[in-house]
Every structure is written in C-alpha cells, then in structure tokens.
Amino acid sequence: MQTFINITGIVRATDLPELRYTPNKKAVVTLLVASNSSYQTQDGTKVEESCFIKCSGFGSLAEAVNKYVKKGDPVYIEGQLKLDTWNDSDGKKQSRHTVKLDKVTFLKAKE
Questions:
Q1: Distance (Å, rounded) from C-alpha 14 to C-alpha 30?
Q2: Domain assignment of residue 32, yes or no
Q3: CATH no. for residue 64?
Q4: Number of C-beta neighbours around residue 65 at 10 A
Q5: How far, in Å, CA of 110 to CA of 50, rounded?
Q6: Mind listing the pLDDT tens digit for each residue in 76-87?
C-alpha cells in the first residue's frame, strides 16, 4: 500500500514564483510560502512564529502560479509532503521537506 502525507493550508507567498522548463518543455514552478501563528506564554509574552515551506508544481498549474501569484499574496494550497535529499559542496548529506502541489487556489481578488 502506498502511503503519503497530504498538506493543506492558507499561506502567503514570500517571494515571486520561479518558473523554468525541463528539456521536454514541461513547466516547473518553485514557490516559497509562509504560515504564521502566535500564542501567549504563561507570563503573558506574545510569541509569533513563521514556518517557511518550499513548494513545487508542474505543468499548467506551474504556469498559472507563475502568472497569478505575487509576493505577499494569500493562497490555499493542497499537496503531498516529500523529503528532498542532496549532498552539499562539502559532501555532507542535506535534506528539506517540500510540498508537491496538487492544487492552488488564488485568494487575492483580481485587480
């Protein structure tokens, strides 16, 4: 049985999307988003936290994200959590969780 973790959320784009094409002319977009939360400690101190998430999308979804998402825009995302691993320039293994986008809903009203 195949297993996966679905991610859904309302987040904000922290920068412009980056669009590129594979040698087979398939569109690929990279989008960095952030979710923000806050809470109050027992002593009354307000704490704000941000979680930055790298997302990637493909095909017509990639082209739509590139066309319509601007820095600071709110978007609703759905996708699968995946783990990217690589070796850095020193040969050390690095890893990062990313979201492979299945759906993006643009929440900002068209101007």
A1: 12
A2: yes
A3: 2.40.50.140
A4: 24
A5: 27
A6: 999 999 999 999
